[in-house]
């Protein structure tokens, strides 16, 4: 700014000074408009569906132990192998989500178990201790079926079949969690204020964090594709 003032003082002609002042004013208006457009664009991006999976690679995703459990085939993430978790670690919202809508196309194979974690954080091994798990299971021996907010509000009914694509969606707004299977609400849960969990579930709380896909066991095979998120205020 000081350099600009020195430059204006150096202009001896009042006409030149007036002309350059107009140019600076016009430049300032341009910068303001561009900045406003940029801010509005960011807000607009937050209001639309954004893909977390490119359909070709695991770019933007991170796995700890047993990385061979996850691979990409025919536009889908194939989950099949030893226990492992694939965490979203990409640039969208800096992989830190609070209020959101999430949806993915899912296909289970007979006897398979998996899950979708939210409000979690990268963990090298074992079951994620932070965040909630939304169950993916249509025929595994675990009685908690697809759509369960695992061990918090469980679903016993089977709403979709193995070997068929279905959409599983999760909406978090404040303390409320809504889980839908093919647009049918199966869980509508509000976390109580100051809720106390058992010690082995201390991290099962609404907070913020990323998403993770679960590799449950070598006999389970589950596919995920069209993984999308929408920011909510």
From N to C, what is the helix and strand string? HHEEEEEEEEEEEEE
Number of helices: 2
**On the 0-100 scale, what is the average pLDDT?**
87
CATH architecture of the largest domain: Sandwich
User: Ends: how far apart?
Assistant: 37 Å
Main β sheet profile: 8 strands, antiparallel
Please state the oligomeric state of the protein chains shown.
single chain
Description:
The longest helix has 33 residues, at 14-46. The protein has helices spanning 2-9, 14-46; strands at residues 50-51, 61-63, 70-73, 76-79, 84-88, 100-108, 114-120, 132-136, 166-173, 176-181, 184-190, 210-215, 222-231. The strands form 2 sheets. Strands 1, 3, 4, 6, 9, 10, 11 and 13 form an 8-stranded antiparallel β-sheet that branches. It has a 5-stranded antiparallel β-sheet with strand order 2-5-12-7-8, with no helix packed on it. The protein folds into 2 domains: 2-46; 50-231, Exo-inulinase, domain 1 (Jelly Rolls), CATH 2.60.120. A hairpin with a 2-residue loop joins strand 9 and strand 10 (176-181). It is globular. The protein has 2 helices and 13 strands. With 233 residues, the chain is an alpha+beta fold.
Short description:
This protein has 233 residues and is of the alpha+beta class.
Layout: helices, strands, pairs:
Layout: H1 2-9, H2 14-46, E1 50-51, E2 61-63, E3 70-73, E4 76-79, E5 84-88, E6 100-108, E7 114-120, E8 132-136, E9 166-173, E10 176-181, E11 184-190, E12 210-215, E13 222-231
Antiparallel strand pairs: 1-13, 2-5, 3-4, 4-13, 5-12, 6-9, 6-13, 7-8, 7-12, 9-10, 10-11
């Amino acid at each position: 700014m000081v350099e600009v003032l020195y430059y204006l003082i150096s202009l001896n002609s009042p006409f030149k000074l007036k002309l350059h002042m107009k140019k600076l004013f016009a430049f300032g208006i341009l910068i303001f408009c561009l900045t406003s457009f940029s801010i509005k664009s960011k807000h607009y991006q937050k209001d639309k569906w954004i893909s977390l999976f490119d359909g070709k690679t695991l770019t933007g995703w991170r796995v700890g132990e047993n990385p061979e459990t996850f691979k990409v085939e025919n536009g889908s993430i194939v989950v099949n192998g030893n226990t492992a978790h694939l965490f979203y670690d990409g640039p969208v919202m800096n992989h830190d989500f609070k209020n959101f809508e999430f949806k993915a196309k899912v296909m289970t194979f007979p006897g398979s178990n998996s899950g979708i974690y939210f409000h979690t954080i990268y963990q090298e091994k074992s079951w994620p201790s932070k965040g909630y798990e939304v169950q993916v299971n249509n025929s595994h021996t675990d009685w908690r079926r697809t759509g369960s907010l695992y061990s918090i509000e469980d679903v016993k009914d089977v709403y979709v079949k193995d070997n068929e694509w279905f959409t599983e969606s999760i909406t978090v707004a404040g303390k409320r969690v809504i889980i839908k299977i093919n647009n049918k609400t199966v869980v509508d849960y509000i976390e109580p204020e100051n809720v106390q969990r058992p010690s082995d579930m201390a991290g099962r709380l609404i907070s913020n964090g990323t998403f993770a896909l679960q590799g449950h066991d070598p006999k389970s095979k589950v596919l995920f594709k069209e993984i999308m998120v929408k920011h909510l205020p």
